[in-house]
Amino acid sequence: RFPYLLQPPHSPELNPIERLWQFLKKSLHNELFPSLQDLRARIQQLFEQLTFEQVMSISSYNFILEALFYAASY
After folding, report:
1. What's the CA gap between 25 and 8, in Å, rounded?
2. For 16, left (φ over 0), alpha (ψ -120 to 50), or beta?
3. pTM of the full predicted structure?
4. Which residues contact 8 (CB under 8 A, 6 or more apart)?
5. Separation of alpha carbons 19 and 58, rounded Å
6. Checking CA distances to 48, which of 14, 21, 39, 58 falls within 20 to 30 Å?
C-alpha cells in the first residue's frame, strides 16, 4: 500500500512541469518569432540543451521527493 500525495484541484503551482516552463520562458523573454514554427524550433533547441540534472533540479519539490522516498520504503 502506497501513501498518496493529494494535490488540490486547480493548483498549477504544485505541478512540477510549471516550474520547467517558467525556466524556459525566461530564455524566451524579449524574443520575437516571425512564425509559430520558429517559436517551436527555439523551444526544441532549449529542451535539447537541458540536462537531466537541470530538469530534476528545476522541477523537483522536496515534499514530492520525500513522499516518493517514503513510498518506496513500504
Report:
1. 25
2. alpha
3. 0.61
4. 14
5. 6
6. 14
DSSP state string for the chain: --------TT-GGG-HHHHHHHHHHHHHTT---SSHHHHHHHHHHHHHH--HHHHHHHH--HHHHHHHHHHHT-
Give mean pLDDT, residues 45-74.
Answer: 81
Judged against a pLDDT cut of 80, whether residue 25 lies above it is answered with yes
Q: What integer is the mean pLDDT of 51-61?
A: 84
Q: Is residue 1 predicted with pLDDT exceeding 60?
A: no
Sign of CA pseudo-dihedral 29, 12, 61, 17: negative
Rounded CA separation 12/70 (Å): 24
Angstrom distance (rounded) from CA 48 to CA 30: 21
